[in-house]
Amino acid sequence: IKWSAVVKSSDSGFVKPEEQIFKIAQRQAGVHHEEIMLIDDRRQNLEAAAKFGWESIQFEENKPQKSIKKIREKLQQFGL
């Protein structure tokens, strides 16, 4: 997957789930919100991304194979 943008909290001055970091990421990615996917282990971060219309998948560290399967399935839906 070719990433359009990588936004680091250390560079932006904002951290998830602050709204501003999602706005910065979406602007830098230069794509529609429905083309953005956040994979995170924290529910509050996923909920914040969902407010922007992003696809969000929870990565369960204690169930990595299950999480990887969900990610692969979602990527296939996107044609990747």
Essential attributes:
mainly alpha
Protein described:
It is a single chain. By secondary structure, the chain is mainly alpha-helical. It is 48% helix and 10% strand. The protein contains 4 helices and 2 strands; from the N terminus they run ααβαβα. Strands 1-2 form a two-stranded parallel sheet. The radius of gyration is 13 Å and the shape is globular. The termini are close together. The model has no long low-confidence stretch (mean pLDDT 91).
Short description:
By secondary structure, this protein is mostly helical. It has a two-stranded parallel sheet.
Structural class: mainly alpha
Biggest sheet: strand arrangement: 1-2
Q: Total helix count? A: 4
Main sheet properties: 2 strands, parallel
The portion of residues assigned to helices is 40-55%
Determine the mean pLDDT: 91
Question: Beta-strand percentage?
Answer: 5-15%
Quote the distance from N terminus to C terminus: 7 Å
* Overall body shape: globular
Q: From the alpha-carbon coordinates, what is the Rg to the nearest angstrom? A: 13 Å
